[in-house]
Amino acid sequence: MVNELLEPRQNRLENLFYLMIAFALLGPTFGIPVTQGFNLTFFRVAFILLAGGIIIRLVMRKELKTSYMYPVRWYVGFFVFWLIYALVSLTWAVSVNAGIKYLVYLGMMSVMAFSVPFFCYNEKNYWMTKRILFGVFATIVVFGVFESIALIHLPPSRAEVGQATVTSVFTNQNDLATCITLGLPFIITALFMLKLQTKHRLLIYFTGVFALYVLLATGSRSNTLFALPLAVLALVITVPFAMDRKKFTWKNIGKGIAAILIAAVIVNMMSVSFLSDEARQDAREKFQGTFGFFKDLQKGSWDADDTQDEFIRGETGESPTNRKNLILNGLWFLQKSNYMGVGAGNIEPLMGKNPPKAVTKVNMHNWWIEILVNFGVIIFVMYMALYVWMLWRLWNLARLKTSPQVSPLIRWGAVASLAALTGFVFGGVAPSTAIHFTPMWVTYGLGLATIVLGERQKQQREIVAEEEQQTA
């Protein structure tokens, strides 16, 4: 391995990249426990080998071609600035150890996200990446189906043996549900935006059906009732602008409606046949209790300065009170930091040290608030501005009118990435934290890769068109 890395070839690095993103989604399922708090996962091994190979190639060749990533230069610049700001924030952090750990996560996830556009420098690599991710996604979903029947959980799962819950390769059901809502837009759009063989179309269709079943089995309210509908709404708005109007025939519309109805019937039959009475009852109570969840949020004061020593459990459980108080406590700590942020990863230590409002959790359970509280207003505003700009650029690449030069593959990627990242606006409040939630970072990277390839295609074909006009 050392001899190979001394003179690394591009294909060897690409293979390491494919392994890295595959193991990134599979998480701690594939790894070796080293200590009680550290697991040497295959993802970390692949990440280190890939980073080492790139560094060796840079040293030996004295260059690293990245000019094709020019369309996402502002994102690169921001993440570099974010990392520097995170490092500086350790000077006022109450827990340097927690800050360093968070900084390592931020650095690794940022590098992984930008490795997607770095290695997807052409459509071949882009398509290969999508195929590998689909295979991993299908594996996660299929095991989720098996888990719901056998109630056998993988080691990373927090569920106990025999417990009627579905987590697949993740630690909890909310992480699995968020992964599914990020992946479903790519599944749905591939069925009618890509030219596929019938067998491949059927494989993708049933993977989507199984994914919907597993999503319902998780009982995740934020993903099932908010994130997925928002992603579907984004698709409904975008698709008419991304496809030739001639394809919107009554026949094709009828096929789509039939596919939806058949999927609904299959999911319902699977729920009745496979889910235990306990699992169905638990999911039903969660979905039916959505109104009660928001009602519980209204209990108690919304003033961050009002202290609350006693934890008030709502009728729908601890979640409403926890989520509300976590946000209010976070904003209180943010104010005390003069809106500069409490420091990288330091909201959790602060949340565990007598916060103004009682909580039973220390993780923020809200990615957007987590960024705001840890890093302050400056980083938050920049992050959100670039996030919205990414959605806008994907929207323009998806539209036939504004980007007729874009290939069908990249247009599909733009539509799916736009819907997935739009749905994550709500999906981001499901996981306890997203700093090491790899499905989100991979999806973010796919959005960047789509922008890089789409903008390059537009530029290249515009140049060709100008040259043809000059020679005419």
From TrEMBL:
Transmembrane segments: 16-35, 41-60, 72-94, 100-120, 132-154, 174-195, 202-219, 225-244, 256-275, 367-389, 409-429, 435-453
Membrane topology: Multi-pass membrane protein
Keyword line: Ligase, Membrane, Transmembrane, Transmembrane helix
Any one cellular-component term (Gene Ontology): membrane
Coiled-coil stretches: none
InterPro entries (UniProt xref): O-antigen_ligase-rel_domated (IPR007016), WaaL-like (IPR051533)
Molecular function terms from GO: ligase activity
Ranges of residues in domain O-antigen ligase-related: 208-384
PANTHER family xrefs: TEICHURONIC ACID BIOSYNTHESIS PROTEIN TUAE
Name of the protein this chain belongs to: O-antigen ligase family protein
